[in-house]
């Protein structure tokens, strides 16, 4: 009897804790908006405790003529407990469906010819796919956020509060030290944030920050800070950036649950200073997702959809001061649209043309899905961004452990030093699985320059 | 003096009635007729027997796999080109040949009544993604047949190389590598460098003007050597600069009127011209290079040949008339589609 009572009590507590919060779209998100509009392909509903809520499905149009998808749709909500997600395909029937990342192990139920459902019980960034292949026309993403904590008080003088609705803030909205910028769910902020010689800044919320009015490379990064210390960005969604989503100089930077989606070459994801943590973030960008340019950077638990250009992890184009001590782990790269034999197209990439000696970088537990291109491109080579020093510049002591690659690569990985003064050495590969097979011989999938590389090893 | 006459002719040509009555040469940039459909860059143009001859780096047709040859093209009017001869047939080369797969930025130099074909080559099986190397071939006639003089290995690692001869008839090899420009005297009979290459342009002597240097081209006009060189700046800004010297070894003077051209991303052609085996098949390079060649026309006057932007679309031939003075090169109708000159 006591057990039964406990179970009933537990059930009641779970129901009390279970909650879904959705956000009302702003009035600018209409059918003829060239940047963002309601999805015409998908309708998303959320079911919890017998209640059904329609969650608005945004859609942003592709902007560049080399973009492979037609658009990207997404739904954004916060929740606790367990939620069942229903997706109705509005213009086609369901012949195939999968929900990525694989590690979430989502079991999808086909309800009828155009309706599917699945249940999630933890926050995450999911891709619901009705098409097969490395390139799909109509992506649908689900941003299932945790419930917000510590929502700031709009009356607090150190809080810049963007309430639900449309806000146009211009391309240089300055944030001061000790300020918290809050984008409430349902806030749609067009503009860019900037800070200089500042510290202890937080940007958070569930709102959207858009750079839609800026043509590529005509404006600065969406969040740009110089000499900035103790900066935290969390929870928001960033779209249509004309350059990087986030570019911070300084140290002690923290990013959590930031969702970034852009279309242009030069729409990179995050570049930050020393002692940075990037976790639980989502990237669907068309240039490098994460720049590993500074010492003591940790990237973990992120989901990446790499468009046709850029690398999920770029180590260097022009590193000029020695750096290292970088760790990347538990990453799901759900799609890599690479198909050009360009130097910057690999999951882990360095085209190191600067004088820095870059060492001690560790990658562990990396899943690569829906890819046909190379994983590794690690070379020293002068390039037109770097200031080449004929006597200095190297890559060394990198560790790559537990990689799983789903797909059939059609191009080999490349490891090459430019000359004797710019070697690549001590690269350890361990437990690399490609298309279901353990890699035992690097020659099968790698081009390794014999002259200016050494100690490139593979183990089980 | 000549340049002033040229300007006058050019201005007169722009007057419709005058142009109709005189012998006008007109063309439209970019020029594609008769040239490789999938694009071409690094153009080199020379005159022989009142005919223009052209060669360059060809983009491969993805649907024609057995068509690897270096071709010489000819024209009398800039607008239409035809294949004049096959200079090198890569299909016939042994698989171990060091230039089996890549022939880049070829040029032909007429020196002491012989023709020297220069190129930057690579074998992608033996040296994949590696540096290119300098090759040189010789022939008694412009159209060949050419005999490669260094069949066993490249003379030196080069990216984009050419030849220039000094007032004492010593020929020099010049090339860019790793963003700097080097030069060395070369013995054409033995196809060997007489001395080790020396850096003639780099961060030390260019100082604040230094930026990664690409695609050098040296042309002698009168007693002056004119060097054109391209520089790429992040965010896509490309400058084409002009330096002069009295001797190939320098010193080279950075001209005050630089740049000759400034190219921005907003000017790039966004329209891919060809069909590819897969969608978005044209690969836009991350780093954009503009390659410029100065040459003298059949009836005098000077021109610059360059390729249109390769950033988002296939590159094709562009030709513009220029005024060449001792320390200045000035395009007469820069970046215009419609070009014309009066033939004196």
TrEMBL record, chain A:
SUPFAM superfamilies: Dextranase, N-terminal domain, Pectin lyase-like. This is Glycoside hydrolase family 49 N-terminal domain-containing protein. It comes from the Bacteria. Belongs to the glycosyl hydrolase 28 family. Gene3D superfamilies: Single-stranded right-handed beta-helix, Pectin lyase-like (2.160.20.10). Keywords: Carbohydrate metabolism, Glycoprotein, Glycosidase, Hydrolase, Polysaccharide degradation, Repeat, Signal. Pectinolytic enzyme involved in the degradation of xylogalacturonan (xga), a galacturonan backbone heavily substituted with xylose, and which is one important component of the hairy regions of pectin. Activity requires a galacturonic acid backbone substituted with xylose. Residues 1-18 form the signal peptide. Residues 45-132 form the Glycoside hydrolase family 49 N-terminal domain. InterPro entries: Dextranase_N-ter, Glyco_hydro_28, Glyco_hydro_49_N_dom, Pectin_lyas_fold, Pectin_lyase_fold/virulence. The keyword Phosphoprotein does not apply.
